[in-house]
């Protein structure tokens, strides 16, 4: 059995940090010993999250090295361009780091700077980071000391396209990802476009000219294809709290049994569920759980594969995936703290 790991969560007041706490407090090999917040240092965690009263008896602390000194594993649930300032010292001190932000996802530091608006402060660590999608990198994650957890959109899109690209069944130059997210994907900061009166009864595309997740998706799909891919990615904001629904289109270059392909590709994967032929997954069917549910269709028997891929953006798209990686890193059962199904309604 894996040894008990002392856990630090940097950025504990955001939605992803809250999900990490919710999951890790029930993990048999994890003990959360530090939860950081610059603005709430000194206040009880349970004041921010009343659902954790009687479960988490900690105060928020400032995010400095002394407060993380007793940790074996540190999770970063911080905005982009924050973790990279602290990760080098933590690795030097022998900590293992799981970063939920984008700081170490892109292998090209100049491309990262272009999309995130600032220079990377430790580009020498980018190659050291392992992309934290277990369905692609399970063995490498197990031996890593720095894991870059994928974004929520990339998780749904990559898992949806992977079997088709692996099998060489689609034109890699004309892939389309039409994806929707709930408002929790934008975090807790107050923004006019995310107010209830602005979001309710509305539905809009955004980032059409280019979204930060686009280079990440292209990078990983390109790895699968062993070549550059052509991808049109259009995200949308819908008036729900949580969830990602990705509708993916690929032009088939040959006839194949797509249902069998997907079932075979994900046979034995604990957190990918390929639905029966003709099914359509819904975001509410994964709410609160770490499952990615996928269905594959060929409308009218034509030459276009349509893949429907749904996840909870805060779980499989963030905190749950991070815990899944943590389980691999400490040689715990991969479903530890993640086995509960999603919540309905």
Automatic annotation (TrEMBL):
Pfam families: Semialdhyde_dh, Semialdhyde_dhC_1. Keywords: Amino-acid biosynthesis, Arginine biosynthesis, Cytoplasm, NADP, Oxidoreductase. It catalyses: N-acetyl-L-glutamate 5-semialdehyde + phosphate + NADP(+) = N-acetyl-L-glutamyl 5-phosphate + NADPH + H(+). It comes from the Bacteria. NCBIfam families: argC. Catalyzes the NADPH-dependent reduction of N-acetyl-5-glutamyl phosphate to yield N-acetyl-L-glutamate 5-semialdehyde. Belongs to the NAGSA dehydrogenase family. Type 1 subfamily. This is N-acetyl-gamma-glutamyl-phosphate reductase. It comes from Salinisphaera aquimarina.
